[in-house]
């Protein structure tokens, strides 16, 4: 078997292992429900035949897939670059323990999931309060991908007169709106925490991304950045200060006459904006209890 075919088989096994434990509550005291499947056990026993580069690819892939699945359970989980490195270290230790046969596969598995549990508690402490008294299986907090036409309507975007380039903050794994805009010959870029293979889609944390100054003609975010900002603003342990800083960085990155379209609105910070620098327009969204905000940079 060619190395590329072998790696492809291995990544499929990782996918199936993650699905094997999908929806199980990792915050319970007893983690016996988390196990390696029989297929995974056979796979991990073969890891000593991989070279260093291949092992790193598997560690990176496992990390990306774990983050993706965590975020499917709860879209409000947050993983910055430092946190992501900690998760990679957990998977590196897992590979090392398997290679050296430091213990039985069952014990290695148990220790690994204990590390993942502690990782989530440290990186997203609110989650333990949410899930520690829940059932063995938990339902995900959904984060839907909406049709581009619906997003355009919600965000009050005039496609015919949109100022380019366009940045979609929290574009989603399928980047539906970005791809739609590009199909209309509009220069558009999307950012999100998912792993992408297209050059116009960037894997990053929106609190760490460098937005630039007077760089974007239009910035959009539907149930993305502002939704999470609201969430953090309501939490006692929320990262609302960094969200506020990033919000202002986003506004500074607009060109003069550029616009930031987002929903839900953020009245708790919008009221502090300088009216000489920014014009604020707000729009009702059917019967929902929040609005769409469109901010235009004036100077």
Write a structural description:
The protein is an alpha/beta fold. Helices cover 45% and strands 14% of the residues. It has a 7-stranded mixed sheet, sandwiched between helices. Strand 6 and strand 7 (291-297) form a beta hairpin. It is elongated.
Q: Helices and strands, in N-to-C order?
A: HHHHHHHEHEEEHHEHEE
The secondary structure category is alpha/beta
Q: How would you characterize the largest beta sheet?
A: 7 strands, mixed
How far apart lie the N and C ends? 61 Å
| Integer average pLDDT | 91
Task: Give the percentage of residues in beta strands.
Answer: 5-15%
Helix content: 40-55%
Tally the helices: 11
Gyration radius over CA:
22 Å
List unreliable stretches of 5+ residues: none
The largest beta-sheet arranges its strands as 3-2-1-4-5-7-6
| Number of DSSP strand runs | 7
State the gist of this model.
With 299 residues, this protein is α/β, with parallel strands linked by helices. Helices cover 45% and strands 14% of the residues.
Keywords:
alpha/beta, 14% strand, seven-stranded mixed beta sheet, 11 helices, 299 residues, 45% helix, 7 strands
Give the helices and strands, then pairings:
Elements lengths: L2 H18 L17 H7 L7 H22 L7 H20 L4 H19 L2 H6 L16 H8 L10 E4 L6 H8 L4 E5 L8 E3 L12 E7 L2 H10 L5 H13 L1 E10 L3 H4 L7 E7 L6 E7 L2
Parallel strand pairs: 1-2, 1-4, 2-3, 4-5
Antiparallel strand pairs: 5-7, 6-7
């Amino acid at each position: 078997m060619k190395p590329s075919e072998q790696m492809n088989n291995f990544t499929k096994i990782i996918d199936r292992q993650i699905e094997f434990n999908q929806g199980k509550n990792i915050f319970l005291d007893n983690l016996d429900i988390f196990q390696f499947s029989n297929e995974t056990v056979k796979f991990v026993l073969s890891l000593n035949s991989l070279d260093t580069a291949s092992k790193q690819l598997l560690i990176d892939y496992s990390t990306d897939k774990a983050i993706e699945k965590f975020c499917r359970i709860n879209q409000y989980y947050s993983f910055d670059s430092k946190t992501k490195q900690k998760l990679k270290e957990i998977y590196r230790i897992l590979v090392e323990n398997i290679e050296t046969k430091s213990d039985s596969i069952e014990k290695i598995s148990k220790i690994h999931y204990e590390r993942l549990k502690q990782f989530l508690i440290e990186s997203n402490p609110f989650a333990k309060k949410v899930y520690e008294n829940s059932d063995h299986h938990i339902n995900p907090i959904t984060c839907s991908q909406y049709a581009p036409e619906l997003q355009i309507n919600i965000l009050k975007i005039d496609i015919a007169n949109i100022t380019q380039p366009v940045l979609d903050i929290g574009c989603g794994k399928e980047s539906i709106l970005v791809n739609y805009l590009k199909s209309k010959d509009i220069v558009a870029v999307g950012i999100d925490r998912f792993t992408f293979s297209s050059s116009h889609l960037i894997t990053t944390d929106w609190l760490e991304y460098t937005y630039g100054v007077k760089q974007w003609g239009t910035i959009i975010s539907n149930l993305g950045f502002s939704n999470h900002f609201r969430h953090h603003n309501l939490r006692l342990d929320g990262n609302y200060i960094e969200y506020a800083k990033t919000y202002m960085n986003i506004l500074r990155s607009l060109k003069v006459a550029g616009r930031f379209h987002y929903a839900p609105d953020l009245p708790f910070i919008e009221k502090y904006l300088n009216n000489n620098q920014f014009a604020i327009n707000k729009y009702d969204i059917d019967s929902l209890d929040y609005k769409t905000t469109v901010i235009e940079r004036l100077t």
